[in-house]
Structures are given as C-alpha cells and as structure tokens.
C-alpha cells in the first residue's frame, strides 16, 4: 500500500536529504507560535526556484529566513508550511574593486562581505542591528539600516541590481551590475522593503565605497532630550561633513562608552570620516555647538573605537531583555519632541525606555522593558496603540518590530496602511495571487 505524501517527501527529488529538515529540528523556526512542517536549505537559486514551484503547485505557504535577526518584523503569518532557509546562498559571485561594485548571494552575512571588501580597502556602508548574523537578503527585504544611513542612505541606495525568484519559481532580474544602468523603472526598489512578499531576493549587485582614511567621533551628554535635540539640529544646520549623527535617550544612554558614569537624560553621537584635518574641524565645531546648547560633558572617541560605537548605536535600544521594539518615523525637527513624549508615556506605564534616533532621516529606534507584572500582553498592546497615536499626532508613524506573540495577536505591527494599500494589494495579487510568500505578514495583511 502506497504511503501518504508528507511535506518532506515533496522535496526529495529537488534537494539532497541533508537539506530537508523536519521533526524536532523545526523549533528554531517557530514564528508567533506557529511551527512549519518542513524547513528547507537550498544551496543555489535553481533549488530555490524548484522549491517555490512545488509550493505554488501545492498551495503551501513559505516564510523566508536569513540570519533571523529581523523575524520579529511583520504580523503573524496567516499560514506557515515551509521555512525557506537562505543562508546556504552565501558566496561572493563577482567583485570588481576598480569599479567599486560586487555581486553576492543573498544569504551572505554583512560581516563576511565586509571582511572580503576590506582586503581591497573598501566597505559596504550598511550597519543595521545584528551585523554579525544579518544577511544581505534580510537587510534588503526589511529595508534595515543603521547610523551610516545619515551619510550613505539605505540598501535602496546601495543596490544596483537584484535577481528574484517569484512565487511560481520564475527567476527574473532587475537593474544590472554597473552603477550607470539603463533608464526606466527602478524595479530594485519594488522588492527592497517588501518583506519577501513579492519575491525572494537571491542575488544582489551593490555599490561599495573606499574605506575612509581615518574616522573620528564625539559623544556629548546632555541634561535633557530637548537640549540634545537642539544640538543635533544645530549640527545638521551647518555644512559639516558628518558620517553619522545619532540622538540617544533613556536607558540607551547607559549602553554608550562612558554612558554609565553620567546622569544625563540624552546624548548626541557625531561621527566623521576622511582625512585627519577635516575630521578635527568637524569635531571641534560640533563640540562648540554642543557646548552652546548646554552639554554637560563632551568626550572624543578614539579612532579605533568609532566602528564599535556605531555597533552600539545600532544595538543600544534592544538592551539585554527588551520586550518591545519599534521603529518610529517623524520629521527631523520633531524627533526630540517625539522621544520626550515617548519617555513620558513610558513613565505612565512604568516601562523602561531607550531610544536611538538617526535624526537627519527622522528614524527613531525604540525599546521598552518592564517588571513582569506590568508587561502582560494587553497592557503592552494598549501602550503600543497609545504610542502610535502620539507618533501620528506628530505626522509620523510607528512600526512594531519585535513583541511577544500574545502582543502581536492584539495589535497590527504596521498600523495604518495609509494611501498605498490599494497599490500594494494589487502588486501582491499580480506577483503572488495564491499567497505563497509570507502570507499575512506585510502591511494590510498581504
């Protein structure tokens, strides 16, 4: 008598046995209480295409995984049958140092790519949270960024071409491998930030940059969020060539080098890249601006510690036991006021609060912890809705990036879909009509 088919057996002809995982090994891929029936580890785009072709034919829901650092983003999946593990696609396919371009597979980590680029005196200016484990595909799917977006922008700005496997297994490409490309629609931007709901990015061509000759930074500590914000806007209002400009508040201040020795409510991190003399000017003038705005202390960061400072700025809002994480967006001039309002709301709920804002883009990464009895799910969900109202009143938004499953079941991670919902729904219908890719996790439940 023929045995009934199971999901693992569906993929036996497409993948070697060691690439098909089932049973107890699936626990690491739990998502909002859901565990897939199978996890698959393809090694190239052809295997990814074969997997998606089968899933499309069988009506299976697929959740892509990279390094796992951004899996808290998005709503709970509407369905979850297959975890698609992309870390096996981890090669540098092409590197042209003289052209400042490289083409890599999407499962390559930022840390591994950085090590290769540094051999040629170059780097990729993307520094989001989870640098050591974050994959290029994960950065692009989630549009993650860090302090260097101030000067270099985001993954959208660094990507010049991608290859994508669609829900039915079709492989397409957008853009190219050179910085100057053909005119027309920039399809790269359609996939970047779409959380893998329109297609799985398997390869990317990227612009890279020469390593700066030197790096410098300062940390200024302030008695209030307001004075730190005024100093940040003061630096922004000059012609100073800064590499990063981050406003730090609450518990995140204590994560900074020297932060535990001060009582300041906020801090400002100012960084500069280039030759020694211009860096010295940036730090000198920024110090003067900070002092004019009431800085309690200004400390210079040694050149060999600047990279570590950027890592801290990316990680600081998360803390060791952070329960809630959110990304807020608002106009740069409203950032300090928004952070102050978040601090006051956090005090109302007796939640500990920390934030790091990349102020020139109006992005505020925030994290909250609290005593166990104060952090039950309904209370957290109510808090997030109030925080979202505060951001909305400032003309901004709040996206919930990490929360316990009980909270995510009560509150939409994305909030208001706003005016683009109809367009996004139409795109999802065109690209993935049967809902194979990350169903339910993106804006508006698409």
Low-pLDDT stretches are none
Radius of gyration: 22 Å
> What is the 3D form?
globular
Helix count? Answer: 14
Largest sheet: 8 strands, antiparallel
Total domain count: 3
Tell me the name of the CATH homologous superfamily of the largest domain: FAD-linked oxidases, C-terminal domain
* Second rung of CATH, namely the architecture of the largest domain: 3-Layer(aba) Sandwich
Mean pLDDT: 92
Structural class: alpha+beta
- Cα separation of the termini: 41 Å
Q: State the strand order across the main sheet.
A: 15-12-14-13-17-18-16-19
Proportion in β-strands: 15-25%
CATH class of the largest domain: Alpha Beta
CATH fold annotation of the largest domain: Vanillyl-alcohol Oxidase, Chain A, domain 3
Helical fraction: 25-40%
């Amino acid at each position: 008598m023929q045995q009934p088919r199971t999901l693992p057996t569906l993929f036996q002809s497409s993948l070697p046995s060691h690439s098909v995982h089932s049973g107890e090994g699936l626990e690491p891929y739990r998502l909002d209480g859901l565990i897939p029936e199978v996890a698959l580890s393809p090694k190239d785009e052809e295997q990814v295409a074969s997997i998606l072709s089968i899933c499309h034919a069988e009506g299976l829901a697929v959740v892509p995984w990279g390094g796992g650092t951004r899996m808290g983003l998005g709503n709970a999946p509407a369905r979850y049958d297959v975890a698609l593990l992309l870390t096996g696609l981890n090669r540098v396919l092409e590197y042209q140092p003289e052209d400042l371009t490289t083409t890599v597979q999407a499962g390559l980590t930022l840390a591994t790519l950085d090590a290769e680029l540094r051999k040629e005196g170059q780097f990729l200016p993307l520094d989001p949270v989870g640098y050591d484990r974050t994959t290029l595909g994960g950065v692009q799917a989630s549009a993650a960024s860090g302090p260097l977006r101030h000067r270099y922008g985001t993954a959208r700005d660094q990507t010049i071409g991608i290859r994508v496997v669609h829900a039915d297994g079709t492989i397409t490409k957008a853009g190219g491998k050179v910085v100057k490309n053909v005119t027309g629609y920039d399809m790269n931007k359609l996939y970047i930030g779409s959380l893998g709901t329109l297609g799985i990015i398997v390869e990317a061509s990227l612009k890279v940059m020469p390593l700066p000759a030197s790096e410098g930074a300062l940390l200024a500590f302030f008695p209030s969020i307001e004075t730190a914000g005024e100093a940040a806007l003061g630096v922004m209002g000059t012609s100073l060539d800064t590499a990063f400009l981050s406003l730090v508040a609450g518990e995140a201040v204590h994560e900074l080098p020297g932060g535990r020795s001060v009582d300041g409510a906020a801090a400002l991190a100012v960084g500069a890249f280039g030759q020694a003399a211009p860096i010295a000017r940036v730090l000198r003038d920024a110090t003067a601006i900070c002092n004019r705005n009431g800085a309690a202390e200004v400390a210079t960061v040694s050149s060999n510690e600047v990279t570590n400072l950027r890592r801290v700025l990316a990680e600081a809002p998360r803390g060791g036991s952070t329960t809630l994480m959110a990304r807020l967006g608002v106009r740069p001039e409203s950032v300090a006021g928004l952070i102050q309002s978040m601090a006051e709301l956090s005090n109302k709920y007796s939640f500990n609060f920390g934030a790091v804002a990349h102020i020139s883009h109006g992005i505020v990464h925030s994290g909250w912890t609290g005593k166990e009895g104060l952090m039950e799910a309904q209370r957290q969900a109510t808090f997030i809705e109030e925080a979202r109202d505060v951001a909305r009143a400032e003309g901004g938004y709040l996206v919930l990036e990490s929360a316990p499953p009980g909270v995510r079941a009560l509150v939409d991670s994305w909030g208001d879909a706003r005016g683009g919902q109809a367009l996004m729904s139409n795109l999802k219908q065109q690209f993935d009509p049967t809902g194979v890719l990350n169903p339910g996790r993106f804006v508006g439940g698409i």
